[in-house]
Amino acid sequence: xxxxxxxxxxxxxxPGMGTFIKRALGGKFDAFLEVKVCLLKLLLPPAFEKQGxxxxxxxxxxxxxxxxxxxxxxxxxxxGCDISGEMLSEAKKRWLPERHxxxxxxxxxxxxxxxxxxxxxxxxxCVFHHxxxxxxxxxxxxxxxxxxPGGVAVIxxxxxxxxxxxxxxxxxxxxxxxxxxxxxxxxxxxxVAGFKPLRREYFMFFPPRIRSLxxxxxxxxxxxLGGQYIVIGKKLE
Length: 237
Known about the structure:
This protein is α/β, with parallel strands linked by helices and 237 residues long. The protein contains 8 helices and 7 strands, in the order ααβαβαββαβααβαβ.
């Protein structure tokens, strides 16, 4: 099997934290993920209130996003998938032993080894800028395929219109082959795959480590200058 790009980064993985600016803004890797899961809980509260919901994290890496979901109260069934076997092995090692471990599934580019209509929610955190442009529609179609009708895809991405984000991506070894995409581009791609857009919001206008400022980010959520954005789409029934 061809070695995945991120296999060599799995051990000690903490994306971008070797960059002084990112360490200064977040303090630690988890701080950036915490902002995202809190936003997810704010925008999709039913996901944290219903028993038995099934969630797939597309491109889960070493599983920290899933860990954060548990921390903030997600009570459904979790699955992580990634094309890097080394990342999945590291995810299993890092999973806290007192918690029920999710299913971790090795995927192929643009192909999920998951049955149709299996999940109510699919999340993806800063994965699509690593997917070659020509493969993005197929990746979104795979997400649509494994979602139940009426299920939602929640995608977080770097905002190419934020100069600091672009600066950090250019200097991160993890983003050597990255191609940033705007929220508008992502929404158009999702529409081709059969999604109806529900939300588009921008966030990370302030450093995650300054929690008091994070609480007022909602004031600026429509301004397309935040460091990252979230797009939520519903699979058409």
